[in-house]
Amino acid sequence: MSRFLEATLALSLVATPAAADRLGLGRPALTEEIAAWDIDVRPDGQGLPEGRGDVMTGEGLYIDNCAVCHGDFGEAVGRWPVLAGGQGTLNHEDPNKTIGSYWPYLSTVYDYVHRAMPFGNAQSLSDDDVYAITAYLLYLNDLVEDDFELSRENFAEVRLPNEENFFMDDRDEVELPAFTREPCMENCKETVEITARAAVIDVTPEDTAARERRAAAPTAEPAAEVAAATPEPAVPAVSPEQVAAGEKAFRACQACHKVGEGAKNGTGPALNGVVGHAAGKAEGFKYSKAMAEKVETGLVWTPEALDAFLADPRGFMKGTRMAYGGMKDADQRAAVIAYLSTFAED
Amino acid sequence: MTDRSGASRRDFLRAGLAGSAAALASGTLARAAGPDPAITELQPWMTELGEGVDARPYGKPSQFEAHVVRRNVAWLTADPISSVNFTPLHELDGILTPNGLCFERHHAGIAEIDPAKHRLMINGLVDTPLVFTMADLMRFPRENRVYFLECAANSGMEWRGAQLNGCQYTHGMIHNVMYTGVRLKHLLDEAGVRTNGKWILPEGGDASGMTRSIPIEKAMDDCLVAFKMNGEALRPEQGYPLRLVVPGWEGNMWVKWLRRIEVGDEPWHHREETSKYTDLLEGGKARRFTWVMDAKSVITNPSPQAPITHGRGRTVLTGVAWSGRGTIPRVDVTIDGGKNWYQARMDGPSLDKSMHRFYFEFDWDGSPLLLQSRAHDSTGYVQPTKDELRAFRGVESIYHNNGIQTWYVNEKGEAENVEIS
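Structure tokens for the assembled complex are given below, as produced in the milestone run.
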């Protein structure tokens, strides 16, 4: 320790006198560098960029960039987050916490959409775009009229209705006294009843089966459980390397598509058994009109057809609801198709 | 220390006695029906040569441990990219979590960052805004600390009642590793925090740009900027090459892929401290800035994924306990649903804001059990029941559910997640 202090001393002799107690590590950040990274916004408006955007502009941007997950009215598709509605539900069972019903500050909307949305293409929106989308989200929550324009100048005037309902953590005062005590150790109660059981609800993934197997054969190979959960490849002709590459490339699709055992429809249809089979066959999925027309004409997802579709979805199928720009790299497309071909129909 | 183990030893004897008095035909050892082939037959590994030294340049667990993995609950989230999986607590022992089994929670998937292109910036209310490379950070004095990281939503699915069958799912959003890193204070001092600098905003370099507001007192106290876990580089899932360590506070604040720290005079009220990580109470008001993790414990064995398979007789019960306010000097265990409690035997290092391991050995008479554990932390706080918590919070707060967990064990040794009166 003292050796380290000596070293510090030696070092500080070299450093400027003002920084005598510093190690002189790192370098000053440049203004441009700070500007590139420091995009955070606070409730008092600190950090807001110059700019403006109105509800109508925001509607168009929202439909193009956000509605596929969050729904046309912020009501959400599937399990994606709900962005609008829910006013008056906070003191009920199943409260619906949205920008309009729960969020305390509008600055949080601007900051978050600007830094993190659209999901998978963060920081692609201009400052004006974010003002417009934020204005539209206010409109979806019935907080402004359709002729509203949001700008840096009027931003701080907008208040969200739930702002007053947050308070600082008070567990130390409220709960700690009650939970700091010497508890009972002996003869603490006469009777004990089971009041709730997880098995009745039965929402635990796969383990129940594993448990039954184990109970039936306590010495069974543990590896059997994992093997049973791995889907049988239907078309084993493709190389394992390609499938592995495809699994990785499939990340670009995962936000909308599920594949594998028990895969359900999400924003896009479940993709089990698509390769080599007729298009539009995912049970319970509502396809677009464009897709329905293709299905009429007997479109089959041959590797070639898939390749063309994935390269340019809207080019291949004008009007498709698949809001995906396309996979430009041919090797990646081939890998994704190889990967998908390993999943048979359910 | 001696006192504690003395007390628990006495209690253990009492429990053992009660058990054997009840029904046990113990004392007689089971007899083999015939010679055990595991002994009498030559196994392949007894005669054949195994793989050489370079076959496994980065060693992996035995093939027979392939079931010991993180698992997720698909219905919890819309997709696996912004999602969570769970540490298999029932398969682990001791206090350290192996790096590959530490639960994951990402908001935009796993960022794969080239450390040569990673920078840490400190800006805002400082004398000199600074940029550090990874190499710069290595030149600050390093510290090694073991801390638990628990997601505030751990056990969040259990507010309305018993839901998930397995401590992996009910309690697996926690891990405990040794971090190597540098004090955040040293970095902040290097930039020179101005007197009006009251808060920091750490920011992640992934596509979610994770941000949280942290008061300067905590930042200057025990926070670390870490680059190693359990001796090796952070795993990409845990924020490689750099993450923030905020001991005892909710996991969401431990920003991964840390790229920037801003100093300010007020909190930022960002998405993860308004829309999320605020605790909605009955009546519609919500607590904000609920940072500290309250004392908590769970029995990991037996549990729904780890039933008793050996039948009646000697049984080892074990579990883990932790507190964001200090250490865990004591854990109580009951096997009859809380009629009688015994002090468990603590074993392994007792470190500040780290996981603790407890054991309770008893003779099982084969009758159904209702198992619970109750943590006491070094401030005197005692883990409450779920109903005691609900009395303060209602059932909609999602976060900070540290209520006592109950496992029902039936005559066959199978365990289930239940709640009791």
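Chain B touches chain A through 111 residues (CB under 8 Å). DSSP finds eight helices and 24 strands in chain B. Further analysis is deferred to the final report.
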